[in-house]
Q: What sequence folds into this?
């Protein structure tokens, strides 16, 4: 009977908190972005910028052929459309400066 009581107390006060802390730690580390994820995000961001420049070129070509053409997307020359991109560029520059 005494041996069973010792096992129960050990499981309750050592085993159970260890299991809880183990999975809390796993949960917190899984929520972070890895360096590979950061590299992938940077590549995707650069690709998106290149594609945006290409779309601007295509829209300029279409607009030169058809004066009635009006693009239905954000305009690169409008201040309100450029603000989110500037904010993202600023955040990337800050992150690059910290490394």
A:
């Amino acid at each position: 009977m005494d041996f069973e009581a010792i096992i129960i107390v050990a499981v309750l006060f050592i085993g159970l908190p260890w299991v809880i802390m183990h999975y809390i730690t796993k949960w917190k580390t899984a929520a972070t972005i890895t360096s590979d994820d950061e590299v992938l995000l940077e590549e995707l961001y650069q690709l998106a910028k290149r594609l945006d420049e290409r779309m601007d070129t295509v829209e300029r070509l279409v607009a030169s052929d058809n004066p009635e053409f009006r693009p239905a997307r954000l305009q690169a020359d409008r201040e309100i459309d450029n603000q989110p991109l500037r904010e993202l560029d600023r955040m990337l520059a800050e992150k690059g400066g910290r490394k």
Remarks:
- DSSP finds three helices and no strands in the chain.
- The chain has a mean pLDDT of 83.
- The two ends are 59 Å apart (CA to CA).
